[in-house]
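FORM 12-B: Structure-to-Sequence Request
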């Protein structure tokens, strides 16, 4: 009989028999009949776990050539890979030389590798399979991973990469040692990617124990919000898995990078269970230089949260023990930590701290030499706290120096229950400090007086800081009070502030002198309600400034101050004896009142009273010559008004009028 045709055509169930069929067909191609016999073996729709194929086929032609094909191969994480075909040259089986190809129906051949059954003299870009006394050996040389494994709709898309190495399997044991060069990949959503990666991967198992290792030697990686540049030294991960009775296991891990990090893990499962839920575990961590490690991931995460280009230094050591689903012991220590924000929001020098947990009781100690927040220098100071895993509280009141005063913390509680970042609650008081020093630090005009206040309840919940009570200011022989203060994202992108400011009887003489506005004598009261700042710039408020009727201070206003106030309202000064105005340097007045409601970048102006002709009175004159200042401009573009105020307080620049 010169020809025989045999077809096996059945749909296999969705588990192990699919692999059995594949093994049977491959065995047929390797050790099948010889001579001129022609035959075909075929199986459809094989499934094994996540691995699926549409068809398996092995065919031998009359001239002895053998072709084995796998159609519609789908691999988890890689996607649909299409068709793979192995052509063996005419020779007595098993197949010793041939060609392996990956084929796309539309594009044709995507990749080709030389195949040999021996491992000697392997061609470049080839594959070699060797039969040993009790198993098999595999060798690859410069295999182009993207050509073989990239798929258009894959969750992970391979862009480049070459693999070289060896693997062997004998019974239930095996090992492999592979090197991957210039690996590049990404995902459709762009959250994960890698480029120029060089990885060394090795593993050895004997049916019971597994020893594995991974070394990251070069290349950059994007893992969600974390960007990891090419490491200055190799980063190595070693892993051991040891089985235990009743299906349990013990996992030992070690992560090392010389001078950057050393971490050790010892985790145990008494029975089969979820990988991330061990029955017990211990973790040791040593970071000798936070500054050296900062660029390998933490820097990019901080930048994504709005903290770009932070400069970090210091050391961290820690140990954690996990038992029965919770942390049983914790000991984390920071030493010599320094943080500098180039934008000037935060600076810390010589920060030392320690957090410990024993028997569900926590203790924390924190000290720093200096802490600067937005140019305000605090310290030196130390804090001690204690409590439970849910909350830590200050052991005793603490005093933190600030300029010539201090911030006193009477109560501080850090709440760590629930999801999200910890919450913070405190009662605090600001001991009197010099406004001259404070305004000088902030780069403002120097004010006289003092600043003090009490904060009976301050809460930081997620990204919002809310202050109950109020902050009292003593300045310009009067007082001011800030209430209902709330700050969203105080250190994040686009911080927002809301609150109310009340002014009571400020002395106008030193106030106008501080701003070079022109001289005024008298008292000033008023409010700024519904105040909202975005990125520290006003976007909404309702402001009203006026002279209290019962003020006993002398009320005089200079010609220059008259001009500045008149320009704000787009009006001018009117007097009973206008020709005589140039003879006077200042004038008496009875009242001053000017208001602005800001909304939509437009300020709606108002004054003491409405006048015929559409104007509003800002300054009501008194005595001779009697001088009134009247405004006519009702709506003012806020940037224009702001520029006008800045020019007026500097004492230079043109007036901006309609």
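FORM 12-B RESPONSE
SEQUENCE OUT:
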């Amino acid at each position: 009989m010169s020809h025989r045709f045999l077809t096996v055509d059945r749909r296999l169930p969705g588990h192990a028999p699919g692999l059995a069929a594949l093994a049977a067909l491959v065995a047929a191609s390797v050790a099948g009949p010889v001579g001129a016999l022609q035959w075909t073996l075929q199986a459809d729709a094989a499934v094994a776990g996540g691995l699926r194929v549409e068809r398996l086929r092995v065919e031998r032609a009359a001239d002895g050539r053998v072709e084995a094909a796998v159609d519609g191969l789908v691999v988890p994480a890689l996607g649909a890979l299409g068709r793979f075909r192995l052509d063996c040259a005419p020779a007595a089986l098993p197949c010793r030389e041939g060609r392996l190809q990956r084929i796309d129906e539309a594009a044709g051949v995507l990749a080709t590798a030389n195949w040999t059954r021996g491992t000697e003299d392997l061609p470049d870009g080839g594959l070699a399979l060797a039969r040993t006394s009790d198993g098999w050996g595999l060798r690859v040389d410069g295999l182009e991973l993207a050509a073989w494994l990239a798929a258009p709709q894959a969750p992970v898309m391979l862009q480049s990469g070459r693999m070289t190495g060896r693997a062997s399997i004998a019974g239930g044991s095996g090992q492999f040692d592979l090197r991957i060069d210039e690996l590049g990949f990404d995902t459709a959503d762009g959250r994960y990617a890698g480029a120029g990666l060089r990885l060394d991967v090795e593993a050895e198992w004997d049916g019971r124990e597994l020893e594995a290792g991974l070394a990251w030697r070069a290349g950059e990686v994007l893992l969600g919000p974390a960007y990891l540049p090419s490491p200055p030294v190799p980063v190595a991960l070693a892993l051991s898995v040891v089985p235990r009775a009743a299906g349990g296991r013990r996992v030992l891990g070690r992560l090392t990078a010389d001078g950057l990090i050393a971490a050790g893990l010892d985790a145990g499962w008494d029975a089969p269970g979820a990988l991330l839920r061990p029955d017990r575990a211990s973790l040791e961590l040593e970071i000798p230089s936070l500054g050296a490690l900062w660029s390998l991931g933490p820097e990019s995460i901080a930048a994504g949260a709005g903290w770009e280009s932070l400069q970090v230094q210091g050391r961290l050591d820690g140990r954690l023990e996990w038992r029965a689903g919770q942390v049983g012991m914790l000991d984390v220590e920071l030493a010599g930590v320094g943080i500098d924000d180039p934008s000037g929001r935060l600076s810390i020098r010589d920060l030392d701290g320690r957090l410990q947990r024993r028997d569900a009781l926590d203790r924390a100690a924190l000290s720093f030499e200096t802490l600067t927040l937005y140019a305000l220098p605090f310290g030196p100071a130390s804090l001690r706290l204690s409590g439970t895993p849910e909350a830590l509280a200050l052991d005793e009141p603490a005093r933190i120096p600030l300029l010539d005063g201090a911030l006193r913390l009477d109560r501080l509680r850090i709440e760590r229950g629930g999801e999200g970042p910890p919450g913070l609650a405190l009662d605090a008081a600001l001991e009197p400090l010099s406004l001259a020093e404070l305004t000088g630090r902030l780069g403002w005009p120097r004010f006289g007086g003092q600043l003090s206040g009490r904060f009976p309840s301050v809460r930081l919940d997620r990204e919002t800081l809310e202050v109950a009570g109020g902050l009292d200011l003593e300045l310009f022989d009067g007082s001011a009070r800030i209430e209902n203060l709330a700050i969203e994202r105080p250190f994040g992108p686009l911080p927002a502030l809301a609150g109310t400011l009340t002014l009571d009887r400020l002395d106008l003489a030193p106030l106008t002198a501080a701003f070079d506005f022109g001289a005024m004598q008298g008292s000033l009261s008023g409010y700024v309600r519904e105040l909202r700042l975005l990125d520290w710039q006003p976007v909404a408020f309702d402001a009203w400034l006026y002279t209290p009727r019962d003020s006993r201070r002398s009320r005089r206003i200079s010609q220059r101050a008259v001009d500045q106030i008149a320009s704000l309202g787009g009006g001018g000064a009117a007097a009973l004896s206008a020709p005589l105005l140039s003879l006077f340097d200042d004038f008496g007045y009875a009242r001053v009142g000017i208001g602005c409601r800001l909304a939509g970048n437009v300020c709606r102006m108002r004054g003491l009273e409405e006048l015929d002709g559409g104007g509003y009175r800002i300054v009501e004159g008194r005595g001779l010559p009697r001088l009134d200042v009247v405004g006519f401009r009702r709506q003012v573009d806020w940037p224009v008004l702001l520029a006008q105020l800045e020019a007026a307080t500097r004492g230079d620049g043109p007036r901006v009028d309609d």
